[in-house]
Write a structure and sequence with these properties.
This protein has 7 helices and no strands. By secondary structure, the protein is mainly α.
């Protein structure tokens, strides 16, 4: 039986490069989960509860992103470093808190999410027409990141965003369509 790695290689994708990009994206997602966990406890001052709910939902969806990326890495016969410091020390993770000079934490978060969208566009470009599974996965994560950015932008301009629905924490609507994340926030095989 032919492996997923062989199928992707035969389609003309440099699988080692792809695994490296997926690993970098997974490290950034795990760092984001850590960061948003800390920020939900951080004294934000203004509109604490509404912003906290948004951050919790973003955190839970980022955890789904991490799980889905890890699954794809292993499907392609890739592995992760056993030492988490080596995994997160790749230099791809964003800062874990607000800069001390941040005037507006929400604007800082919007910029961080905007930067987080770009690697998924690169993954889409690398895999389009050649590795449909990774392409659709990267596209789904990119769409959810864009939605996170919209939630924060709407919060900044009008208060609680109209598109944000509290209580749907971690549903990852784009990933859920791919059967890589279930309703219980558990990854599937």
């Amino acid at each position: 039986m032919i492996s997923a790695r062989e199928v992707v290689e035969q389609a003309g994708v440099d699988v080692n490069k792809l695994i490296d990009r997926l690993t970098s994206a997974a490290a950034a997602e795990l760092s984001a989960v850590y960061r948003y966990t800390i920020l939900t406890a951080y004294p934000l001052g203004f509109a604490d509860e509404e912003l906290r709910q948004i951050l919790k939902d973003i955190r839970d969806e980022d955890r789904h992103h991490f799980d889905a990326l890890i699954n794809r890495i292993y499907e392609l016969d890739g592995t992760l470093p056993e030492d988490i410091r080596q995994f997160l020390g790749s230099g791809h993770a964003s800062p874990w808190g607000f800069p001390s000079d941040a005037q507006d934490p929400v604007t800082t978060l919007i910029e961080d999410v905007r930067r987080a969208v770009h690697p998924y566009g690169g993954l889409c470009d690398l895999t389009e027409g050649r590795d449909q599974r990774t392409f659709v996965l990267a596209q789904a994560i990119r769409n959810e990141k864009i939605e996170h950015m919209a939630w924060l932008e709407e919060f900044l301009s009008t208060g609680p965003p109209a598109r944000f629905r509290p209580g749907f924490r971690g549903r990852s609507p784009f990933l859920a369509r791919l059967s890589v994340a279930s309703e219980r926030t558990e990854p599937t095989a």
